[in-house]
Amino acid sequence: MSNPYESPVLPQGEINEPFALAQVEARTRTMEWVVLLVLASVQFTSIVDFVVVMPLGPQLMRAFKIGPAEFGLIVSSYTFAAGIAGLVASSIIDRFSRRTAFLSIFAGFLLGTLLCAVAPTYWLLVAARILTGAFGGILGGMAMAIVGDVFPENRRGAATGFLMSGFAVASVVGVPFGLYLGTNYGWHMPFVALVALGLPVLVIATFALPPLNAHLGKKHTHPLRSLVNTFSEPNHLIAFALSAALMIGGFAVIPYISPYLVANVGMRESQLPFVYVAGGLLTLFVAPVVGKLADWYGKLTMFLIIAPLSAVLLIAVTFLPPVPTLFAVLVVGCLMVSNAGRMIAAMAMITGSVRPELRGGFMSANASMQHIASGIGAYLAGLIITQAPDGKLEHFGTVGIVACGITLLSLIAAVRLRKVGETEEVLVAVPEHG
């Protein structure tokens, strides 16, 4: 009995073309999944590195004898370094192969994380956070550029959904485990664990990632001219506006959810992890589904459905009265899911809106815009929110209304964003077999 996995024997010189094409397709799909797993692992480490600093605040303030303002500098130094580095990288990143650039940036990120772990003083920790942010801020854009190069349009939404589920895994596993290490073994240990996790991923990525250098055949301009070109293309500006609106709308609310739940809704601090675990689990299961639906029914269609829903949930969360904990967890979890869903659809649209030879620089610039916009959103919300003598937060509902309005404005940018032609937007991800 013949083996169904072997090509049937044909006369010498003849080729079973359907079987050969099936083999190439199978190898391509396998390569795509390996690349996606590597990218998701890198996303996980970078997300946990950024997020875990915030709940470590009390320990850092005790260890370095600093106040809230100094701790705020530890957090914001990462964000602003990420934004500036993204702008610089956007002008030169397309001069290198995707693999070389990605591996170099990830190695720099791990070095910065290691320096965070061993920083003996406050200012050295701030410097280490600046270095980590400079590299970590570019990783997200590079990952999306690689997704855009490797995955064709009909599978890009699902790939984006899988990659963005790294946020959910970070919420469910990474941050709670990091807090456990920090609480029991000191604030250094979460950073040590991230380096220990990242080094094997770096080694695997060295062998797993394809060169992805087809864009190098294109003529590149001077870095400053490249930066000007990136920000002078009207379609790019629409994409940046879409990203900025989503990040401002989200980060005007997200950083203040925890204190609002404790001060106004009546939750205990010990119950807060349930909010993030529940939201992360919901996102973990829903994000891939949203990605597939975006491939089936269209990215813009899914965005036009999910973005208004997230706008309504922003209002719901910021006006949430004292309610049972389970209800509060459900509402905030739904907001997390809707925020992730709108970003999946939006990022898939944005990735397909730029020519392949410009994608690396563009996505770096877009990541930079996202970091800056998130900082703007959090800062503006801080100017609006006040704290009453009894500790409750006031005017959070006003922030929710503003965030809702900005989110709805993103619909205009999404509708106006155009997609690059099919022949321009997909690069060959594997060597041709001939």
UniProtKB/TrEMBL annotation:
Q: What is this protein called?
A: Inner membrane transport protein YdhP
Q: What is its main location?
A: membrane
**Phylogenetic placement of the source organism:** Bacteria, Pseudomonadati, Planctomycetota, Planctomycetia, Pirellulales
* Any one GO molecular-function label of the UniProt entry: transmembrane transporter activity
Indicate yes or no for the key word Transmembrane: yes
The subcellular location is: Cell membrane
Transmembrane regions: 33-57, 69-89, 101-124, 130-151, 158-179, 191-216, 237-258, 270-290, 302-320, 326-350, 371-389, 395-415
Q: Which PROSITE patterns match?
A: MFS
Record keywords: Transmembrane helix included? yes
As for membrane topology, the entry says: Multi-pass membrane protein
> What highest taxon heads this organism's lineage?
Bacteria
Stretches assigned to the Major facilitator superfamily (MFS) profile domain: 35-422
Which keywords does this chain's UniProt record carry? Cell membrane, Membrane, Transmembrane, Transmembrane helix
An annotated GO cellular component: plasma membrane
Query: What is the native source organism of this protein?
Result: Anatilimnocola aggregata
